Amino acid sequence: MTPGPKVPSPKVPGPKILGLTGSIGMGKSTVAGMLRDLGVPVFDADAAVHELQGPDGGLVPAIEAAFPGTTGPHGVDRPKLGNAVFGDTERLARLEAIVHPAVAAMRKGFMAANAGAPLIVFDIPLLYEKVGDKGLDAVAVVSAPADVQRARVLARPGMTEAKFAAILALQVPDAEKRARADFVIDTGVSLDATRDQVVGIVRTLAGGK
């Protein structure tokens, strides 16, 4: 069932918050870049995780304690950590319990730093899978035809059909995401056409700014 238009709940005056999401290979990073080019502050959840797990990252000691041997001089060894939690729901939950509160704290700081902006964006790859849309004024889903998505993903170094299928199995289907979204951004068209869609959304949510 497709939800109707969101009715903003009473909250402290501040920026409107747009959640940006999309399945692998749909062009979400490109759209996030377009939003930044328009002057919209974007909080990148993946970038926050990389910072927290990188050299001298704040989560490196906790992750090493929970998963010995998965970190080194350059921070978290992501392949080793991935192997340590892959297919083990208990271990994955333990990792998420370390990571999610730290990312939430960074997001809170981002919101405080951009309290005067008319619109801010939370770039969250697994918004529907892990986070949900609570606290958001709207959600934009980045989408493209399945054949375009497949070609983009399989062109990535080290990607295989099996890996692609495994990733898709963990993600909410694109059709469902589009049905639940307030805005759908089509990246199966030219960059200019995609940019026009992004500009329209910003104008709608930010009052023409």
Topology record:
Blueprint: E1 16-21, H1 28-37, E2 42-44, H2 45-53, H3 60-66, E3 71-72, E4 75-76, H4 78-85, H5 89-113, E5 119-123, H6 127-131, E6 138-143, H7 146-154, H8 161-170, H9 174-180, E7 183-186, H10 191-206
Parallel strand pairs: 1-5, 1-6, 2-5, 6-7
Antiparallel strand pairs: 3-4
Helix pairs in contact: 2-5
Write structural notes for this entry:
With 209 residues, this protein is α/β, with parallel strands linked by helices. The chain has two domains: 14-41 and 118-209, Rossmann fold (3-Layer(aba) Sandwich), CATH 3.40.50; 45-113. It has helices at 28-37, 45-53, 60-66, 78-85, 89-113, 127-131, 146-154, 161-170, 174-180, 191-206; strands at residues 16-21, 42-44, 71-72, 75-76, 119-123, 138-143, 183-186. The protein is globular and about 50 Å long. Mean pLDDT is 89; it is low at 1-5 and 7-11.
